[in-house]
């Protein structure tokens, strides 16, 4: 039986798809059969035809083992997209898919839409949230954040919310990190002091992303043996 990890973020447009792709290449380099599952996808790619996240995985970085379940054209919150498109989201089906792929793959990376407090289903008196789905799946999370101003507050509050919800946080990934920026460097150092959580990776800003650039990024990260140990300790992955 494989392991499933939910990739969430401190907000939207902070690079969850980039971080998920990076992790997929890391695991593939280690010889682990890896599946990417983004169950709820909203919004189209620049071609106006493909769905943005699926287009990224398949066309931009060439990760064929990626799949969605609910595809909705409006680039809005899932609960609103479902209303606008008359789509019924069934959490039990998402859970079933994850369990199915855990039996077929070593690693299943489940990318969420937005952050933990994003509503997926609107009911009469309440909302079914992303955090509800994670708890129903009984899987841990990795939190993705940007590295610049606001990273401290956004990361600390997201971790606090996850812990209040009883969700296990494995670690953090920071996107668009610039080692020459005193703000970026201090943000990471401060967050490390404030939270007893490992920083799994700091990913640079990427231009003209291709499969080759993502593979090279994963190879450079894996060149450090301490990071392989991190995978063993934090993700309980045998490498």
TrEMBL record:
SUPFAM superfamilies noted in UniProt: P-loop containing nucleoside triphosphate hydrolases
Residue positions binding Mg(2+): 17, 53, 111
InterPro entries assigned: DTB_synth_BioD, P-loop_NTPase
This protein's pathway: Cofactor biosynthesis; biotin biosynthesis; biotin from 7,8-diaminononanoate: step 1/2
Record keywords: ATP-binding, Biotin biosynthesis, Cytoplasm, Ligase, Magnesium, Metal-binding, Nucleotide-binding
Entry's localization field: Cytoplasm
Enzyme class: ligase
Entry annotation: catalytic residues: 38
Keyword Ubl conjugation: no
Listed Pfam families: AAA_26
A GO BP annotation: biotin biosynthetic process
Cofactor(s) required for function per UniProt: Mg(2+)
Catalysed reaction, written as an equation: (7R,8S)-7,8-diammoniononanoate + CO2 + ATP = (4R,5S)-dethiobiotin + ADP + phosphate + 3 H(+); (7R,8S)-8-amino-7-(carboxyamino)nonanoate + ATP = (4R,5S)-dethiobiotin + ADP + phosphate + H(+)
EC number, as in UniProt: 6.3.3.3
GO cellular component: a single term: cytosol
Subunit description: Homodimer.
Protein family (similarity comment): Belongs to the dethiobiotin synthetase family.
Protein name in the entry: ATP-dependent dethiobiotin synthetase BioD
Organism the protein comes from: Parageobacillus thermantarcticus
Gene: bioD
């Amino acid at each position: 039986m494989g392991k499933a990890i939910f990739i969430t973020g401190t907000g939207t447009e902070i690079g969850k798809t980039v971080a998920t792709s990076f992790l997929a290449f890391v695991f593939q380099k280690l010889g682990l059969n890896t599946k990417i599952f983004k169950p709820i996808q909203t919004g189209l790619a620049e071609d106006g035809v493909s769905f943005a996240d699926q287009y990224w995985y398949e066309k931009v970085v060439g990760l064929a083992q990626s799949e969605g379940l609910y595809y909705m054209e409006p680039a809005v919150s899932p609960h609103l997209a479902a209303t606008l498109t008359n789509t019924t989201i069934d959490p039990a089906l998402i859970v079933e898919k994850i369990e199915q792929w855990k039996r077929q793959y070593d690693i299943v990376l489940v990318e969420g839409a937005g952050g933990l407090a994003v509503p997926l289903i609107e009911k009469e008196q309440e909302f079914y949230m992303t955090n509800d789905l994670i708890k129903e799946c009984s899987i841990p999370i990795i939190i993705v954040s940007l590295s610049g101003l606001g990273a401290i507050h956004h990361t600390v509050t997201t971790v606090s919310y996850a812990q209040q919800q009883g969700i296990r946080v494995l670690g953090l990934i920071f996107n668009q990190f610039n080692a020459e920026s005193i703000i970026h460097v201090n943000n990471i150092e401060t967050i490390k002091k404030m939270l007893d959580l490992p920083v799994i990776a700091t990913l640079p800003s990427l231009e003209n992303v291709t499969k080759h650039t993502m593979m090279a990024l994963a190879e450079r990260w894996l060149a450090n043996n301490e990071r392989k140990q991190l995978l063993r300790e934090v993700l309980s992955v045998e490498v």
